[in-house]
Amino acid sequence: MVSMVLVLLLPLWDEEYLLMRDTSLPHYHPPILECGSKELTLNGRNARQLVAEILRQVLAHIMDSCEDDTKALFILIQLYQTILFNWGNRQRRI
Fold first, then answer.
1. Reduced to 3 states, what is the DSSP secondary structure of residue 42?
2. Name one GO cellular component term (predicted).
3. What are the percentages of helix, strand and coil residues in the chain, rounded to 5?
């Protein structure tokens, strides 16, 4: 249920691409379908990026205090996958 809400409401990334590796291929832009709903922003900030920043803070806390909590780490991985790779074309539950 969490991932479905994130996918349906969060806007796509508008920020500059991270250069991970040199490539001659163009960046992939998923097709965007309008369904009449508005994007969710938080004081004008990209909500998807804000969720990613918060997940980064949660990950740092887990690694500092309870790095052996694999269940929490797997949940964080699922949330990262949801905000980075889902663009509203698929619904799945966490």
1. strand
2. proteasome complex
3. 45, 5, 50
